[in-house]
Design a protein that fits this description.
By secondary structure, the chain is mainly β. It has no helices and eight strands. It is elongated and about 55 Å long.
């Protein structure tokens, strides 16, 4: 995996197997407290004006002082009747640390 900052709001993620590039993607987000944060929220009416669903996902990518890559992921959602929350779920979150691999490039 190679991450390259393009701008303050875009990074390029490249996935390699050996020297072969398997996939490349441009990620959109913003910098916040030394992390690159990707937010994804959805709000869609199930029964327009009566019952609505809201979902959110947040991913943070950062480099630790050891040089390792850290990835945090957090999700949540809520179902609302008009404006009153009926059922909420989520706060599934986890953090993963990936050890830095010395590159031959």
């Amino acid at each position: 995996m190679r991450l390259t900052a393009l701008t303050e709001k875009r990074i390029r993620a490249e996935l390699y197997h050996g020297n072969e590039l398997l996939e490349e993607k441009i990620l959109k987000g913003h910098l916040k407290k030394n992390y690159f944060v990707l937010n994804a929220s959805l709000k869609f009416p199930v029964f327009y004006g009566v019952f609505n669903v809201y979902r959110s996902r947040k991913t943070r990518i950062g480099i630790l002082p050891t040089g390792n890559l850290t990835l945090d992921y957090d999700t949540g959602g809520c179902g609302m009747l008009v404006i009153f929350p009926l059922m909420c779920a989520g706060n599934d979150s986890y953090g993963i640390e990936y050890k830095r691999i010395k590159s031959s490039r």
